[in-house]
Every structure is written in structure tokens, then in C-alpha cells.
Amino acid sequence: ADLCAAPGGKTAQLALAGADVTALDQSGSRIKRLTANLDRLRLHAAVVQGDAAHWRPERLFDGVLVDAPCSST
Asked: What global pTM score does this model have?
């Protein structure tokens, strides 16, 4: 799971490496940018709009990435 995921650079790197990624961000406009970036790169991730502090996923994850505030690295 990539929390605070937009604009999607880290999500894309994980997906490119073969990970099954769920990308979460609370901003609708940033989710649109994340989705556009994944589409442009022809990569897939499950994209969810929500607040990471209150989000309860349906399944557990092997790993969670949180880059807050986003460092763009």
C-alpha cells in the first residue's frame, strides 16, 4: 500500500517492479493526476480516495509506504 500516493512516482516504481499496489490519497484532484500518470506509463495500481488516518482496507498488506510530507524522491 502506498499511502499519500499522489502524484504517483513511488506507486509507479512499485508497479514497474511487479508489486500489486494499492495507492491511497485523500485529494480528488491529486487522485486524477495519479491515475493519469499511471495510464500514461501503462501501469496498474488499485487507486483509492480516502484519508489514511481513517481508511480500513479489506485486506492486510505485506508492506506500507508513507512519504509524508511528500519528498518527491
From this structure: 0.88
